[in-house]
Amino acid sequence: MLILAINPSSGKGHARREATKASEYFANRGINTLLLEGESLQDFRNSFLREIDRDDVTGVIACGGDGLVHELIQHSAPRDIPIGVIPCGTGNDFARSIGVYKLALSQQCDLIVNSEPKSIDLGIVNQTWFSAILSTGFDALVNERANLMVWPKGRMKYNLAMIEKIIALRPHHYRIRIDDKELDLPATLITVANGRSYGGGMNICPEASLEDGLFDVMILGEVSRSELLKVFPKVYRGKHVGHPAVTFYRAREIEIRGSGSSFADGEPIAKLPLTAKCVSRALRVWAA
């Protein structure tokens, strides 16, 4: 049996509609499904945990975005239950990273029916898994501010939050250990990447791989407001690579000491200081 986990707020009901179509597709091929959603995150979690330990569960399909994937991997990875994704969220960066974002629904379902799951890496911080990007600094502040906004909805609130935080921009001082390398520096932004993109396709670490057992770490050093406004749009195409304020590293483990919070997969994950580890082959996914 496949659990179709639905984020009912994704796309104004789009996730529920796609899940219903997927359920019909699987039923036509003799595969049982259970559509699962909740009135709140805790309500969904309670229902999901009741169902995931059934003996006949063969996989979990996320019908939503990166936030839903983030929730599901907390429970699926330790149980070695594979995950598929029908992307219905705002960012959908995990779906991009596993190659299913641009597939039609029928192709996404075909992949789940006809292929074996592959093993990919995950990051972990304080026993919390993340699939794509952990960040601290400027964009963590943007995330915090956007999460407090009740209007506007969707990506526009992040644009407004970004403008507000650019006006108040100041670098923070960090002490960073990247495996055995020690750094002591001011930085505007630190990203710890398992996947390549975040924020709806921003290619922050274009060379990152889900299968190499390593994080790609990008540090944006101290920059002015005007320079940040120049650099940030380039991230969508990965054109920030080579900028004099941008430095890349690769590591199995990173420790970040300083002040502030961090976000992973768009969700709050930890206050600093933190230690993140890349865990090889931690999750099985249906990937293109």
Low-confidence spans: none
In one word, what is the shape?
A: globular
SSE class: alpha+beta
Distance between the termini: 21 Å
Give the DSSP E fraction (strand runs of 2 or more residues): 25-35%
Architecture of the largest domain in CATH? Sandwich
Total number of distinct structural domains: 2
Summarize the helix and strand pattern as letters. Answer: EHEHEHEHHEEEHHEEEEHEEEEE
Number of DSSP-assigned strands = 16
Oligomeric organization of the protein chains: single chain
Write the layout of secondary structure elements.
Blueprint: E1 2-6, H1 14-27, E2 33-36, H2 41-52, E3 59-64, H3 66-79, E4 83-87, H4 93-97, H5 105-114, E5 118-125, E6 128-130, E7 133-137, H6 138-148, H7 155-167, E8 172-178, E9 181-187, E10 189-193, E11 215-220, H8 225-234, E12 246-251, E13 253-257, E14 261-264, E15 267-271, E16 274-285
Parallel strand pairs: 1-2, 1-3, 3-4
Antiparallel strand pairs: 5-6, 5-16, 7-10, 7-14, 8-9, 8-13, 10-11, 11-12, 13-16, 14-15
What can be said about this structure in brief?
This protein has 288 residues and is of the alpha+beta class. It is built from eight helices and 16 strands.
Structure explained in plain terms:
This protein has 288 residues and is of the alpha+beta class. The protein has two domains: 2-115, 3-Layer(aba) Sandwich (Rossmann fold); 130-281, Tumour Suppressor Smad4. 31% of the residues lie in helices and 32% in strands. It has helices at residues 14-27, 41-52, 66-79, 93-97, 105-114, 138-148, 155-167, 225-234, and strands at 2-6, 33-36, 59-64, 83-87, 118-125, 128-130, 133-137, 172-178, 181-187, 189-193, 215-220, 246-251, 253-257, 261-264, 267-271, 274-285. The strands form three sheets. A six-stranded antiparallel β-sheet has the order 6-5-16-13-8-9, covered by helices on one side. Strands 12-11-10-7-14-15 form a six-stranded antiparallel β-sheet. Strands 2-1-3-4 form a four-stranded parallel β-sheet, sandwiched between helices. A hairpin with a 2-residue loop joins strand 8 (172-178) and strand 9 (181-187). Helix 6 crosses helix 7.
